[in-house]
Amino acid sequence: MTRRRREIRIVVDRYTQVCLTAIAVLLTVLIVGLWADFVPSARSARAADDATAAEQTKQLIEAQNKTTAAVDKVADLLRSGEVKVQVMKRPARPEE
After folding, report:
1. Interacting residues of 3 by C-beta distance below 8 A, sequence separation 6+
2. What's the predicted TM-score (pTM) here?
3. pLDDT at position 20, please?
């Protein structure tokens, strides 16, 4: 028994070509993006950024602690009565 080969023709219109091209481009972008995540230099750069951010956070916390300590000292002085605050009216400014 001999098999006869059938010829199948598929006609792809312009819309289908555009859709398939868009899908191919998006898949390429996805693959490149995923590949870039696994590049060691990208990882080390991200880790360096994280270390820098952590250091900046530590510095901010230290500065906040210093500010809090200074405000506490002023509040203690005011509570002790060694320092008194007197509110006065501001003198009127001479007209220019």
Report:
1. none
2. 0.38
3. 92
